[in-house]
Amino acid sequence: MTDKAALRATLTAARRAMDDRLRDQSRGAVRDHVLSEVAAHGPASGSRIAAYEPLSTEPGSIELLVALHRSGYEVIVPIVLADRDLDWGVWTLTRQARLPLGLAAIESAALILVPALAVDGAGRRLGRGGGSYDRALLRANRAAVVAALLFDGELIEQVPADDWDVPVTAAVTPTGWQDFGRVGNG
């Protein structure tokens, strides 16, 4: 088992064991920190934000997507392709079928909210291991803010990384928003 695989297993087990009430409180705090950052520093209303529909154990929330949508942002979410790359579709309140916008849709996102199991202070992100986001983030605009959503305890000292791993520029935990600076690609 690789260092990444062992760390993934540990973090995934911790998320599954998390108390539902604490998970819901943490999601609410993450949502509030994202919305505060967006209100204070942008992007401008009407801009495109790439986000994701969270799994039941992830720190993102549908409530965050709703709040961003209602604030006037075009929210796009990934459509996982057979090769695990990410196409994108516009997220709507009605959750209707999404028409694919193409792989390049992420290029116009001013803010990209990504899932992660852990992040370190250098912006190295540990995902679930499919490489989907690393490929997609290579197409992101260099000026985009790329923020990983995490639970407390998942901002760690060091994340094992490979050459193909694309770093994030910020992490959002229930404790707050932490900026790492511009380390993105594109």
What does the model show?
This protein has 186 residues and is an alpha/beta fold. The protein has a single domain (3-179), classed as NagB/RpiA/CoA transferase-like (Rossmann fold), CATH 3.40.50.10420. The protein is built from four helices and ten strands. The strands form two sheets. The chain has a seven-stranded mixed beta sheet with strand order 3-2-1-4-7-9-10. Strand 2 and strand 3 (86-90) form a beta hairpin.
Based on CA atoms alone, the radius of gyration comes out at 15 Å
Large-scale geometry: globular
Low-confidence stretches: none
Can you tell me the CATH topology? Rossmann fold
CATH superfamily: NagB/RpiA/CoA transferase-like
Descriptive tags:
186 residues, alpha/beta, Rossmann fold, 7-stranded mixed sheet, 3-stranded mixed sheet, 4 helices, 28% helix, 23% strand
